[in-house]
Design brief:
By secondary structure, the chain is α+β, with helices and mostly antiparallel strands. The strands form 3 sheets. Strands 5, 6, 7, 8, 9, 10, 13, 14, 15 and 16 form a 10-stranded mixed sheet that branches. A 4-stranded antiparallel sheet has the order 1-4-2-3. The longest helix is centred in the middle third of the chain and has 12 residues.
Length: 325
């Protein structure tokens, strides 16, 4: 459904989301904001994406309202590697390219859809609904170990452990250049990039404290480094933002690698091309250890990088198995 509103003279200068909410017959400002950010609003035929944009008198605003979708994710038979499973939880190795939770633009085909199909009626339920408890997330194109709760008690206990960082969690990241020192910390508050709300950035105001610890495992020609990264905090895109902020963005990162890095000049042209053409961030959550939420028994899981990242590491002669066990 499409609704058209012509802005009257007295609306000039108002925030767009507020103006539309006042003229859309009961639709909330938050809903209008999400529609604008999802590119469902246009002004005189041109898409607008900033809810705070000032209204222009006489402009023709068209609002496309997508058809409603079911609030219940559908069970879908999507294979994923299971590392461990019992009545309380599932530990899995998330493949790259798999979105964790349904959201605008990814309403199905997600890990949640796959988990519903895998678990079936064995899910006792969380919050009165038969659904898996997503304790933590990995970006769509980040691979690696995840734990998912099956019960409310497991979800609460595991969520508390993640909030307190009472667990063992480590990533492998292939980045451009060589961080100095080879073992160190990157600190900087992370929040929405004020120039691009779809990106995160180190900010001076309104961000959340973030600390990443890293160590270099291997280096090739001072052009690329294989790092082990550990999170002292868990912010959105934290490793990607912190490494990019130091001039060492992750190879293949589609968001935080904006130009050919100067370090690329230090490696042979055929390898440089392979690295620059890698289609996703070369980031893998290779280790996760935690206490079982019901028994307290220690659990620990380690997985190698997925095939595409392993092929890349083999081509440039870096070994991912150098991480300490």
């Amino acid at each position: 459904m499409t609704t058209t509103i012509i802005a009257p003279p007295e609306a000039a200068g108002q925030r767009l989301d507020r103006f539309l909410a006042e003229n859309m017959g009961g639709m909330s400002r938050a809903r209008l904001k999400s529609l604008i950010e999802a590119r469902n609003v246009s002004r005189d035929g041109t898409l607008v994406t900033k809810p705070a944009e000032e209204v222009i008198a006489g402009a023709r605003y068209e609002i496309v309202i997508p058809a409603p979708v079911s609030a219940e994710p559908a069970a879908q038979d999507i294979p994923f590697p299971i590392l461990y499973e019992d009545s309380d939880l599932i530990v899995l190795d998330k493949p790259p390219g798999l979105v964790v939770h349904p959201a605008p633009g990814n309403e199905d085909g997600t890990l949640v859809n796959a988990l519903l199909a895998h678990c079936g009626d064995s899910l006792p339920g969380i919050g009165g609904e038969r659904r898996p408890g997503i304790v933590h997330r990995l970006d769509k194109d980040t691979s690696g170990v995840m734990v998912v709760a099956k019960t409310e008690q497991a979800l609460a206990t595991l969520s508390a452990a993640f909030a307190a960082r009472d667990l063992d969690r480590a990533y492998l990241a292939l980045c451009w250049g060589v961080p100095s020192p080879a073992v160190g910390e990157i600190e900087g508050d992370i929040g929405r990039d004020p120039r691009d709300r779809k990106r995160m950035a180190i900010v001076t105001r309104g961000g959340r404290e973030a600390l990443t610890r890293y160590r270099a495992l291997a280096v090739r020609d001072m052009a690329v480094s294989l790092l082990e990264c550990r999170l002292a905090t868990g912010r959105t895109h934290q490793i990607r933002v912190h490494l990019a902020s130091t001039g060492h963005p992750i190879v293949g990162d589609p968001v935080y690698l904006r130009r050919v890095p100067s370090a690329a000049k230090g490696i042979a042209s055929e390898l440089r091309g392979v690295l620059l053409d890698f289609p996703r961030q070369a980031l893998h959550a290779y280790r996760l250890g935690f206490a079982h939420p019901r028994t307290g028994a220690p659990l620990s899981f380690t997985t190698p990088p997925p095939a595409d990242m392993q092929v890349l590491l083999d081509l440039i002669g870096l070994r991912a198995d150098m991480a300490e066990t």
